[in-house]
Amino acid sequence: QFLGEVHENTLEKIKTLLSSIVFSPFNVKFIGVGTFPRPSKPRIIWIGTDGEGGNNLVHLAKQIEDVLEPIGFKPDKPFKPHITVFRVKKNPTNIIKQLEKF
Fold this sequence. Notes:
3 strands; alpha+beta; Cyclic Phosphodiesterase, Chain: A; 3-stranded antiparallel beta sheet
């Protein structure tokens, strides 16, 4: 969950709340390449996750949402497990052509 800029006092609350989350280590397999918001107009290039690892990340994200919502942090969109590879600033046409190879 993206939190944006937070005040130092709030940061301490966030650390305390996040430290209360309990989970076991898990593996994540990364697969596939995608874009946000859509392939024809990419702003973010990402790599997705496999089923089990992705499901574990979704569960962990839900726990994070649950502990942070009471202090005012609400997700603005559903969580999609991924790793952002880079952001597209200029000339998305070249990026689209390169992504078509994958």
